[in-house]
Amino acid sequence: MDTETGLSRRGALRCMTWAGTAMIWTVAGGIPRARLIAEAEAASGGFTFAQISDSHLGFDKPANPHTTDTLAEALNQVKALPEKPAFMIHTGDISHLSKPAQFDTARQLMAGTGLVTYTVPGEHDILEEDGKSYLNRFGKGAKGDGWYSFDASGVHFIGLVNVVNLQGQGLGNLGHEQLEWLEKDVAHRSASTPIVVMAHVPLWMVYPEWGWGTGDGAQALSYLKRFGSVTVLNGHIHQVMQKVEGNVAFHTARSTAFAQPAPGTAKGPGPMTLPAGELRQHLGIAQVSLVSVQAPLAIVDTPLI
Amino acid sequence: MFETDTPTVQGRRALLRACLAGAAMAAIATTVRAVDAPKDATVKIDNFTFAPTPLTIAPGTTVKWVNEDDIPHAIYCQGLGLRSHPMDTNDSFSHRFDQAGVFDYMCSLHPQMRGRIVVQG
To answer: Each residue of A183-238: pLDDT tens digit?
Structure first.
């Protein structure tokens, strides 16, 4: 299918494509929703997991003074999914200021779904005690600043930390030690293993002027080049953005807390205070399904209303 | 009664005169100190920018950063090994600059935010 990678159609089918191209965008009542062309097929019987992001518990400014409530609403949405997800991931900024009470409330609410939650830290989660406040609660079994990998349903999941030692221009940073670990982690895996990478700051350059990208993200992706199916799930920018490059599908999730402006449309990337009643259109969850190519993968983003 | 009161009144007047004189001297001294001593300076953080920057100050000036953003920021000056706590909205952080020099700093959470303090004697 992709001449550059030399993959045959059969090969691509075998490794089960995860691609954003299977989604269509519809606008109903002014609310854009990403949907599958064959959503019904996708929703039946496959392996699915849910993604939430950027809950920023503790944030109480006008952009959303009720972040605990909106996180709870998002989690209720996860609980109400017709197919129970295998687990949930949280792509960072669990808390706003890394305070123990903020982490503990988030953990308690997430546990209420009855799902195991895998997390990666955002820059707001490592503000206290050099990140130990986060690691003590969410980093069990993780390496370094909190990176890890695991396997589920034949998919290899990798949780990366790209918010420590942020570099000039504010870009995310993985660092040498983590990159070395990543290279070894995937070195002996079959190219047909679907890979899912989770990290807070987008691994691709969404908008470097606002620090929306990872300086050494390209190096990490070079280790994943040979895999037939790579899905990169990020948060940080509080809005849905997607890109497909070769066999790599990039996707950023909505926040459960507050909206941020589209790149370059405001002076800075700070919280956006929206007219009353519009906030929940910008918050939400994502559901990711692994399916065969006949009813291709995908990520279904759903706003809170 | 009068005889005993009179010296007291006089004493009060003397005390008052002494106090006024002392207060005046103290006021003069304060004025002198205010002229000599560097004024404190404030750097506002708003919309992911520091202002004013660069900021030129005299040695001994205390710079106070005030976060007026809805998102936390933290000051990091590598040259001084200076690192603030994460400042939430309306939080501030102060540092006194005693040595002359040029000090570049940034927000450790958003390193694209850069600022400079110039201390010249």
So the answer is: 999 999 999 898 999 999 999 999 999 999 999 999 999 999 999 889 999 999 99
Picking from B48, B89, B108, the nearest residue to A61 by CB comes out as B89
Q: Are A220 and A175 a contacting pair, CB within 8 Å?
A: no
Question: CA-to-CA distance for B54 and B61, rounded, in angstroms?
Answer: 15
Query: Quick count: other Cβ atoms within 10 Å of Cβ B81?
Result: 7
Nearest Cα neighbor of A118 from A233, A20, A16, A220 is: A233
Distance from CA of B82 to the nearest CA of A (A): 15
Q: What is the pLDDT of residues A246-270, one digit of tens each?
A: 889 899 999 999 999 999 999 889 9
pLDDT at B13: 53
For residue B109, CA distances in Å to A42, A64, A157, A295 come to 39, 21, 27, 41
> Mind telling me how many Å the CA of B115 is from chain A's nearest CA?
13
The Cα–Cα gap between A177 and A162 comes to: 12
**What's the CA gap between B72 and A150, in Å, rounded?**
33
Q: Which two tokens stand for residue A110?
A: 């997430």
**How far B111 CA lies from chain A's nearest CA (Å)?**
4
pTM of the entire predicted model: 0.80
**Nearest by Cα to A195 from A218, A217, A225, A173:** A225
Helix (H, G, I), strand (E, B) or coil at B99: coil
What is the C-alpha separation between B20 and A303, in angstroms, rounded? 71
Select the residue of B88, B108, B113 nearest A97 (Cβ to Cβ). Answer: B88
Q: Is residue A235 classed as helix, strand or coil in its secondary structure?
A: coil
**Using the beta-carbon criterion (under 8 Å), do B111 and A97 form an inter-chain contact?**
no
Q: What angle do CA B5, B9, B14 make, to 5 degrees?
A: 145
- Cβ within 8 Å, pair B112-A170: yes
Closest among A122, A125, A123 to A92, alpha carbons compared: A122
Cis, peptide link before residue A271, omega less than 30° from 0 = no
Q: Does A209 touch chain B (CB under 8 A)?
A: yes
Tokens 């709870």 belong to residue:
A72
Specify the DSSP element, H or E, that contains A285. Answer: strand A284-290
Do B48 and A268 count as a contact with CB atoms less than 8 A apart? yes
Interface test with B, best of A93, A96, A134, A166 (most B CBs within 10 A): A166
The radius of gyration of chain A's CA atoms, rounded to the nearest angstrom, is 18
The answer to whether residue A65 neighbours chain B at the CB level (below 8 Å) is no
